Amino acid sequence: MKVLFVYPDFHVNKRPKGSVSYEPAGWYNEGLASLSAVLKRRGHDTALCHLLRPPTKTEFQAAVRRHEPRLVAFALRSEVFRSGAGLALWAKELGYTTIAGSYHPTLNPEESIASPGIDIVCLGEGEEPLAELCDRLESGRDPGDIPSLWLKREGKVIRNPVGPVVENLDDLPIPDFSLFNFDRLMSSQTYTALVSFTRGCPYNCTYCCNHEIHSLYPNRKRWLRSRSPQNAITYIRMVRKYYPEVRYLRVMDDIFHWREEWLAEFVPLYRAEFDMPLAVNHRPNLFSENAASLLREAGCYQVYFGVESGNEFIRKQVLHRHMTNDQIKTAFANARKAGMITASYNMVGLPFENMERALDTIKLNAQIGANRILNPIFCPYPNTDLYDIAVKEGFCSPKVDYEDNVVCTMPDFGEKQIDFVCTNFKLFVKLYRIAYRLPAFLGRGLEYLVDRLFLWPRLPYGALTKLANARHDPLARAKNVLRERTPNIYIFVRDRLIGNRL
Questions:
Q1: Per-residue pLDDT tens over the stretch 119-137
Q2: 131: Cβ–Cβ under 8 A, 6 or more apart, which residues?
Q3: Domain 2-159, what fold?
Q4: CA separation (Å) from 105 to 22, 72, 125, 210, 312?
Q5: What's the alpha-carbon Rg for the chain, to the nearest Å?
Q6: What dotted CATH number matches 191-406?
Q7: Domain range annotation of the chain
Q8: Nearest Cα to 234, choosing from 172, 279, 174, 295?
Q9: Mean of the pLDDT values across residues 357-376?
Q10: What is the pTM of this model?
């Protein structure tokens, strides 16, 4: 039988006056590629409707009819759940059976199954449940007792318990890269392929869904899994087969790799066959000099670290990220010593944050010297620990509108202040970097003045935010145009601005 995957792959931006704009993304989705590979191994057919903007009803229904699927499967994150639920209703109107999976249906299955257009919800990993569902639909057998699936039947909902995770990732087929048109992907504009070799994370940060998803499975002790180094090499060979233009690999694993023994085995295999530079994620308290050395030997040119907050109370007590500022500084120093570009992830508007605690994050970013800084506004996702905290404390509504820019506010850290910090974050990092580079007597004076400016309660937050956006938006548009139309020039400029690739 044929399954049509529907992948709403755009960002939703709600303006202050309520108008909504949509920004195309265009990313490869490892989960969908893996589902497709498993279904094809079981003899089924698959296709993808990759949506970079919300379609009209006529457009969408025509696209679905062209494929004539037996099942329409939606991959839905919270930000696009409202749009995706509407699409599912349009598919349902045509008489197709629908199923929804991915983050939002897993974290909020009750809302998902209550959507009129969604017949079935998949909780957690979907390879085995979806394949079993397709087998039964094709043979006419009852799918009502398949683990991990919730199904509507005669006005009621069958809520099956979640089945076990796939314990050995080498047992899964290599993802079906043919499902995607690599020419349309955002990463392809810079000749980059996204790859993933692990599942699960050994940590339980309160803002992340890892803890909630991990707790669903009966074999949760096997939650943290990795492809073997040999299988990872096979995976990369297939990437290059389907995307021969690839020059860089972006490893999307939460931590690459939490076991240095795995890296020590992988590195010589990789270097013997590939010369593509790597960009990876890592965790500051695990990033030893040996890990940095191994990654550099593998050709790693950039490492992304989650800083999240420079305030140790927020980071440890609120986020449950048990690491110190000194450990973070050491990790960035180890990366620089190994010759790697560094990037820091941060969040603005966390529960219990205020201007003083936000300033701690800005100052830490100035001290660690990251080449790239990312600082989005915090959004509490359903059924995560930090969502529960934010709702309990009255910082956000239980019914979060994920199309809003700011959904979590504190009594002394309101929407205008959060917007101001987000849009001016990098500017203040630059000011503090200047202060820290000056002779001590001058630097302390400049730091004091910048402190007073940032914390001045009469700052015109709204006007300064508009001014920052007026400066950022044209630059962002120019960057996108340059990347899309002249990628080689974009890469040349990018490499000179944030550091040379290998």
A1: 999 999 999 999 999 999 9
A2: 38, 39, 42, 44
A3: Rossmann fold (3.40.50)
A4: 22, 15, 11, 14, 33
A5: 23
A6: 3.20.20.70
A7: 2-159, 191-406
A8: 174
A9: 97
A10: 0.93
